[in-house]
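Journal club side-thread
Mid-discussion, someone asked how the predicted structure for our own chain would compare to the paper's figures. Pasting it here so we can look after the session.
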Amino acid sequence: MNPAMTITLVIEIATLAFLVVFALRLRGWTSDTRDRIETINRRTAEIHAEQASQRQMLARSTTEIVNTACLSDLGFRYPVFLADWSIDAFLARYLVQFLLEHRPDCIVELGSGSSTLLIARCASVIDGYAPRHIVIDHEAKYLDLTRQLAAINGFDKGIEYFHCPLSTDEHTGMQWYGGVGEHLAGVQAQLIVVDGPPGVLQPLSRYPAFPSLAVHMAPRCTLLLDDAARPDEREIARRWAAENPEFELTINPAGHGYAVLTRRELRGSRLP
């Protein structure tokens, strides 16, 4: 092989080696670039989701502030606190609108507190409206505190308080308000507010409310279940609806969330 051919061969081999190395590096660069683009796209999507979540939270917070400000016009003599362990402003607003629109003759509450005061105050300011208002709690101290707050606000005389310590429910085998059936003898409730017992007590702790109170539900009856943003309460509401198809279920996820089960005779309500 003459020198010229040798040089040519060396050049071709060097060129081929360069192209191979370049191709390998190009493939690595392309892969890195693709990974970086995917990371950027993923992060961009996360940022958009975070921004959407923040906008949603801001909108809900604004709505809650507006609701709370409007509820303050009810003129309580002593503050009625919302959120945390109490009902929040979303359920409070629903309650006020429900009472004004439907004016239930008999109201039963499971769990006492801010909802008790709110219902009693609305009943006192709606002309010609004087429902039977029954409140049940397994904690005597909270029942007494609610009684004191109602007295301070000037409307304790229209509320019936029953202390029902928890015991094993014969139908479900779960912990439930003992003696509640005796206290509600003859009662036909048009509104039942379920905000007890605490969810930490046992799984699906509020499930017995429907089977134990079914006999005390009027033909036109609505159940409100607080804390429906929690998985247990959502499951409870869905079970109730599945087991009682004559009731229609809607769930509002705002704030603590609340579920509304309405016997179908009440469909067509304008409430949110």
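Post-session note: The mean pLDDT is 85.
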